[in-house]
User: Fold D-galactose 1-dehydrogenase from Sphingobium boeckii.
Amino acid sequence: MSEAPIRIALVGMGKIARDQHLPAIAGNPQLVLAATMSPHSPGVDGVAAFKSMEALLAAGDTFDAVALCSPPQVRYGLAAAALAAGKHVFLEKPPGATLSEVAVLKEKAEAAGVTLFASWHSRYAAGVEPARAWLADKRIDRAHIIWREDVRVWHPGQAWIWEAGGLGVFDPGINALSIVTRILPRRIMLEAATLSFPANREAPIAADLKLRDTDGAPVTFDLDWRQTGPQSWDIAVETNAGTLTLSQGGAVLEVDGHIHRDEDREYAGLYQQFEALIRAGVSDADVTPLELVSDVFLTGRRHTVETFED
Ligand code: NAP
Assistant:
């Protein structure tokens, strides 16, 4: 017997909600968009639209789950209110502004008997699972990540990203960490970090990280938001059987002289996973990438660099 579609309320109608969440929900017959909530941005024609979480929750049993696409600094309050109302919760990345609030959300979801999903969209890029499978039985000698992009192109006018808790260059950088922590066979730990903060901003514009896996293999990470011209979202892993490269944010895998490229299904994959978790009555809230970013902010050396204006 087929089950009723899961009714989703989409919260925070900004760039990612419109670019990715709306088409992914529309493309999945197991889901239906039941409502939107955003303080200022418009909703979607023909779908109930609300301006606050209180107003959305007052709509009662008209939806089953919320997908939270707000900035991370306000995510905990929105998620806690939805969980208290018995709704399943999909968290955009990063799952929260702090590790402690995500731990509390896990407890609340468990107590309410609903699903909490900490989504990491880059883990659903086409090359990631084949890379993980290929690396599983290899000796890892070293890995290098380059994530260099132009913040003016990708995050124009997003004030929250430069405020405390917005993560700055780690907003995209955490995507690289979500991939590396998925494909490498062993856990990685931070050894040293250098952070560059514009003199007028609360979040970094660039960083250099040195990490190691539990067998001592070095992993370096070069992260910069001041890149103009060609952009780089590349990971190279040197092994006893040759070098594996993942480029274009995990979309293209090159290994053994073969190039593996598939259609972009990141958000389709995320929503399939959310639906499967809800149907199975379980949660998936891995915080490993956020732990590493938290370690960077705990221990990194800070340099002040020139001011940045949008
Ligand atoms: P954005 O364009 O600035 O949109 C954020 C939206 O959140 C705004 O439209 C704002 O709504 C809404 N919002 C702010 N406070 C809210 C509140 N209290 N309750 C409900 N909604 C609230 O940012 P974005 O690029 O979509 O990023 C949002 C999240 O998605 C971030 O965590 C980011 O890391 C993640 N993400 C972004 C991308 C990307 O390519 N942009 C990719 C993957 C993941 P109003 O306009 O109504 O004020």
About this structure: The chain has two domains: 6-118, 122-262+294-305. The pocket of NAP is lined by residues 11-17, 37-41, 69-72, 74, 78, 92-93, 121, 158, 171 (CB under 6 Å).
